[in-house]
Structures are given as C-alpha cells and as structure tokens.
Write a structure and sequence with these properties.
mainly alpha; 7 helices; single chain; elongated
C-alpha cells in the first residue's frame, strides 16, 4: 500500500492511536506534565477509538477467515473494562493524590492488556487476511466515526458514565 492508502489502513490508524494512548499514559504519570489535560485527551481518544472500532471495524473483520471472532468479541468486552477504569479515574479530583495513582495504574493495566492482545490477535489477523483496499475502506470509516465521537465530547465524565451504565 502506498501514499494515501497507507494513511487510511485501518491497522495503521489503530496502531497510531495505541501509541498515542501510551504517550498519554506517560504524561498522566509525570509530575511535570499537565496530568488533567492528558487525562482529558486520553478520555476522548479512548472512547472515540473504542466506539469507532466497535461501530466500523470489529463487525467487518468477523467476516474474514483468519480473524478470530472470539478475540473480536473479547476486544469489545475489554473496551467495557477500560471504560469502567477510565470512569474511576475521571472521578478523581486531585491529580497528585494516591487515589489518582491507584486508579491510573488500574486504567493502564486494563488498557495496556487490551492494546497488546488486540495487536497480537485481531490486528495481525487483519493485516494478513484482509485485502489492502478493504483495510483502507475500514480505516476511512473508523476515522469518520472517531471524529464524530470526538466532536460530540465523547470523553466527558457524563458520556463515559452513560457508556459504563449501558445507557
């Protein structure tokens, strides 16, 4: 895949978000960083990313041989776990507190586990078994849904609570 197509490859787009999440984890752990701003960016990205994967990517990938359907369903379950951990962190007022550190580590653990598993199973399966053109279509759909979520303030504590409570 060359040029524009590579920019939209769903696997590459998702991996780029994963690396951004890891960078935001570093900022949320750093006493020198604006932890509250990093949390706000992380919350928006995590929710937009997960909602876009579930709306535009996971269902489509299930149709391909070589992509493990159980792993795709497990990925959605892990999104819910990550969202719960995120809600707990969003409810901490003091970014310098022990409560912040504990809840941040719970979030890092839940999300890092998901990123690692998704990259090893779902994304490798997609890279090997889904044609370039289809990956580019899925990447474009993922990005559209992700932008729609971001524009709707998807990382707000109210929206995350609604998602966690299944509303």
């Amino acid at each position: 895949m060359t040029g524009r197509g590579k920019d939209q490859d769903v696997v590459e787009v998702i991996l780029k978000d994963h690396r951004t999440m890891e960078e935001l984890f570093r900022r949320m752990r750093s006493v020198e960083a604006d932890r509250a701003a990093a949390r706000e960016k992380f919350a928006a990205l995590l929710i937009a990313h997960g909602e876009a994967e579930e709306a535009e990517v996971y269902g489509a990938l299930k149709r391909f041989r070589g992509v493990d359907n159980e792993e795709v369903e497990h990925g959605a379950e892990e999104h819910a776990e990550g969202n719960e951990a995120l809600l707990k962190l969003l409810q901490v007022d003091d970014v310098g507190s022990d409560d912040w550190d504990e809840r941040l580590e719970e979030l890092v653990k839940a999300v890092s586990h998901h990123l690692d598993e998704e990259e090893r199973t779902i994304l490798n399966g997609a890279r090997e078994n889904v044609p370039d053109e289809r990956r580019a279509e899925l990447g474009a759909a993922f990005l559209r849904e992700r932008e729609k979520q971001l524009a709707a303030d998807c990382g707000s504590v109210e929206n995350v609570r609604r998602l966690v409570e299944g509303g």
